Amino acid sequence: MATSKATPRMGFLYPTEENVAWYSVFKSMMLQMDAAAFASREDRNAMLSGGGTLSWNATTGALTWTDTLDVLSPTTAAVGELAAGSATLEDGDGIVVTLTRYATVTYALSSSVAQSVPSDDNSFLLVRRSGDLLYWRNGVVMPDGFEGTLAVRVLSDDIMDALEAAEAPDATNEFVTVSAMNTAIAAAIAAIVPPVTPKENLTVQVDGVTALFTTSAPYNAGTLQVYLNGLHQLGPGDGQFVETDPATGQFTMTAVPPLGTTLYVLYMGV
User: Fold this and answer.
1) Rounded CA gap, 15 and 1, in Å?
2) C-alpha distances in Å from residue 181, one per residue of 34, 147, 148, 258
3) Model pTM above 0.85
4) Which of 31, 87, 233, 260 could cross-link 240 (Cys pair, CB 3.0–4.6 Å)?
């Protein structure tokens, strides 16, 4: 007669109904649950660092790192080290390392390349390839041709151009201050993503006669949103208003709003 059964997903043992001497099975079940819960907590707080200079070539699938990649467990302050090396990653492949749970000293990590992560308590996904991009555990996304460190996020060309323009004119070629760098980034982002205006009240223009209205500033075509009496109006192509001339801020309602109607708009500025 069986004394225990296993859960379908995690394989936790539990006593059968017929098992009178259930304590040993119950203890085994609790130890399995404890190990799985601790692994989940450790993975949630794990930190990835090191690696020296990392290089990624999507054409060959070659990922290299020049120094140890470290996985820190803040729970015990132990570090797992993956020695400097390389791996070849096809689309969908990831690098999986095996952690030593509840370690208290630095230890060596073993690794493998796999399309999926084993369903156990010790496997930990470091990085996964999707298309030409590498998605790292710490949030860094590396494009094809990347060469740098895990501490640097890849910025768009527009932001990088703005950063270069903000460099200090001195021999060290460094930024004057962190503030100057932040200002350059903010300006670059503003140039890429136009600001959304606060909701603008055009009710004063509603006279019960005109269908043509004008915003206080030009708007980007396709971004105008119109609200009559708080109700959102369907945009161009759906028949409730037309963006007559975004450069001058003009738009036309297909039906004249009655006197007393409230009119508000939202839009992205030019």
Assistant:
1) 12
2) 47, 22, 20, 51
3) no
4) 233
